[in-house]
Structure formats: C-alpha cells, structure tokens
Hints:
The structure holds 2 protein chains of 2 kinds. Chain A is mostly helical. Chain A has a domain at about 35-80. Chain A is about 85% helix and about 0% strand. Chain A contains 2 helices and no strands. In chain A, about 10% of the residues are buried. Chain B has 2 domains: about 5-85, Orthogonal Bundle (Rna Polymerase Sigma Factor, Chain: A); about 100-190, Arc Repressor Mutant, subunit A (Orthogonal Bundle), CATH 1.10.10. Residues about 105-115 of chain B have low confidence and may be disordered. In chain B, helix 2 (about 15-40) packs across helix 3. Chain B is built from 10 helices and no strands. The chains are: A mainly alpha, B mainly alpha. The interface between A and B is large, with 28 and 44 residues.
Amino acid sequence: xxxxxxxxxxxxxxxxxxxxxxxxxxxxxxxxxxxxxxxxxxxxxxxxxxxxxxxxxxxxxxxxxxxxxxxxxxxxxx
Amino acid sequence: xxxxxxxxxxxxxxxxxxxxxxxxxxxxxxxxxxxxxxxxxxxxxxxxxxxxxxxxxxxxxxxxxxxxxxxxxxxxxxxxxxxxxxxxxxxxxxxxxxxxxxxxxxxxxxxxxxxxxxxxxxxxxxxxxxxxxxxxxxxxxxxxxxxxxxxxxxxxxxxxxxxxxxxxxxxxxxxxxxxxxxxxxxxxxx
Lengths: 78, 190
C-alpha cells in the first residue's frame, strides 16, 4: 500500500454536519449563561451591603439587649 | 484579523444572539469534525461541540484579537476532545513533542510499500477504509491526532500546530512518522 492510498483513505472520511438549529440553540444557551453570570454578579455585589446591614442590625440588637438588661437590673435594685 | 470577524466578536460580547449563532454556524462543521476524528465516536460529537462553543463564548472576552479566531476555536475543540478521552481513560499521550526517533525519519520523502499477500482484496474500497481505521486505532495519540487532523479538508499545518501547541515543522514530522507507522500496521496485518 502506498502512502498516497493511505492519505486518500483518510481524506474520504466524512466531515460532521451540525443538525438543523444547532447554531441557534448554542447561541441561546450561551446567552442564558451570560444572563446567569450577570445575575450572580448582581447578587454578589449585594453581599458587602448585606454584611454591613447585618453588622449594623447586630450592633443595634446588642444595644437593645444591653438597655433591657439594665432596666431589669434597675428593677431588681429597687 | 479581518474586520468582519472583529465586528462579529464585539457583537457576541454585547449579547447579540444572532451574532453568536453566526459564529457557531461558521465553525460548527470543523469543530465537529475535529472532535469526531479525535474521539472516533460520532454519537459524542454534538454534545462535545456544544461544550466547545459554550467554552468559546465564556472565554471570548479574553481572546487575543491578534490571533486567528478559527485556530483558537479549533484548539478549544481539540482540548474538549482530549478532556473527554482523558475522562474515559482513552488518552495515552500527554505531549506532542518530537522525539529524536521521529527526527530520524523526517527527511524521507517517499516510502516503498512491501508487496502484500492479496493486493486485490486490499484495494477494495470498503476493505481499504476498514483496514486504515483499525490500524489508526492502534497508533499512539501523539501520531494519530496530527495525521487525522492533517487529512481534514480546510485544516492546514499552521492551524494544527496552534491546536497542538507545537511548531509547523513538528507537525510535519509527526504526520510523516504517523503515515509510516500506519503503513507498517496495515502491512503487518497481512
């Protein structure tokens, strides 16, 4: 068998043909992924604010707890 | 890079779905063929081609505009196929580097095949293709893939070199060596 015959046999192998609608489906999937990433980034962007609010609320709660305990202490002391 | 291609990329990056579909349309046939040749399994091609294009769109923002878009996309297709072969335990070769043994045969232009026991049967078209496929399956990936890629219409040596991460000279050497090994495999089968 000659090298040319091998090359010829290899070149006769068929190419892949995408099924109908393949490109459109991929484009939609890609767009969905972008949308998901944008939404995720949006949520992540809110995290620092949420953390700050959480800290502020916790601080407020601690102040409230301290005030309540002080009132109890005053009542007991009377 | 041609201006049309640059505009297409920019449109894809702005979320233009039609532009994304045009990009897929332009490269799907080659992407699928690369994956088919590398995996040898027609049933896998659609899923792996989809995976390839999703990776393309995910990384498009970081694509170097000085590079050739088609080669970049085919490189991703090649890697997706290799990842699949690796996951299924069918990947034997990590590197496409040329060994001293490969260099020794690089200068040979033409090989003369030894006479075969039954030449008439060998040259029967279907039998011929079957023989080549079986022999190909026995070649190490390092030689099999460059040879298969070189036989794809429209895929040139510089593109294959980019996909494999080697020089054009190395691709030529690997392809030449692969042809010789393939011929030996077929001859040994008779």
